[in-house]
């Protein structure tokens, strides 16, 4: 009893996950194309499109899964394909019950083996990645709690820049980090290394301006979400590409926010290069938005010193981006104009049953009576001495040998 129930549960879960993964893949492809279309625009715009697109790529397919008949692409789950194949088989021929039962048993067993194996592999990989994200979150909390106070001069510059940025972040000093980072999804905290107390005011302003850019655009929340989505879709290459594009756009956007104030681009680029040469370019902790995060400092400096993008380019690519995301949303919530598998199966079963019915005796298409393996047409001779009426024994014999009932 538990075996068939487990098979049905695994098949249902497997089919639901397959549909969700297909819809999410289409969404990630649309988001990636939108990010490529916005490559020549400001990093702030690209950052927003990638962040909200990544959120929509996960939430919209989940919402569409609870709405009936919302998948319009020619992609069917395993139960739908099995129902359609069963309908075609019933329309063409109706096998014996024993053969049909054996085929269904073999099909369910093979589906359970392959589907369950793939499901368990995906669940194992997703669990490992999500456990890593959870461990990184616990580590970030430990970093925040172990941070110490900063010097009064550093605190003064921090409060001045925070008032200009309009954020509400905390500041701490710790020896467990090699460079400036932002941690904390609900209470953002900027952590500086111990050397920060000896930094010049120009370097301190450059570093804090970059970190305030991360806080202003919500990277202390978007980064954990992007890592969680990438871990949940670890087997999908598009998830890794979209997450990588988002992290790069976040760093470029924070650099643009840093030079949007009183600091000039050449001075800010010089401070980035100086920090990298001082050994502060080590990989930051997971989930943290670092001042020297990916991409490399050389790429960021070249982008800072290059010609800023024109507004006319933004007017051309924004409609393309919105069109890609809108087309994907229409695909997700489109309604198919096809017959459901249940109706096809019922129609096929009705046709097969009707083809196996024998005509009622005595009608216009009454079959000939079969006696001893030979058939003879019915006669209309009247009963008489030469043609006596059939006795009850003869009638009983006829009923046992002919096709009448």
General description of the model:
- This protein is mostly helical.
- It folds into 2 domains: 2-94 and 315-348, no CATH class; 148-308, no CATH class.
- 64% of the residues lie in helices and 5% in strands.
- The protein has 13 helices and 6 strands.
- The strands form 2 sheets. The chain has a 4-stranded mixed sheet, with helices on both faces.
- Helix 1 runs antiparallel to helix 11 (311-332), helix 2 (43-65) runs antiparallel to helix 8 and helix 5 crosses helix 6 (201-216).
- The longest helix has 49 residues, at 97-145.
- Residues 70-78, 336-341, 354-358, 370-376 and 392-397 have low confidence and may be disordered.
Kindly summarize this structure in a few lines:
The protein has 405 residues and is mainly alpha-helical. Helix content is 64%, strand content 5%.
Which helices and strands occur, and which strands form pairs?
Layout: H1 2-37, H2 43-65, H3 78-92, H4 97-145, H5 152-165, E1 170-173, E2 181-183, E3 189-192, H6 201-216, H7 219-232, H8 237-259, H9 265-277, E4 289-290, H10 297-305, H11 311-332, H12 341-355, E5 369-371, E6 374-376, H13 392-401
Parallel strand pairs: 1-3
Antiparallel strand pairs: 2-3, 2-4, 5-6
Helix pairs in contact: 1-2, 1-4, 1-8, 1-11, 2-7, 2-8, 3-12, 4-7, 5-6, 6-8, 6-9, 7-8, 9-10
- How many independent structural domains? 2
Strand order of the largest sheet: 1-3-2-4
Profile the largest sheet: 4 strands, mixed
Structural class by helix and strand composition: mainly alpha
Number of helices: 13
> Oligomeric status of the shown chains?
single chain
Give the ordered list of helices and strands: HHHHHEEEHHHHEHHHEEH
Helix content: 55-70%
Strand coverage percent: under 5%
Average predicted local confidence, pLDDT? 74
- Gyration radius, to the nearest Å? 36 Å
Number of DSSP strand runs: 6
Low-confidence spans: 70-78, 336-341, 354-358, 370-376, 392-397
* CA distance, first residue to last residue: 41 Å
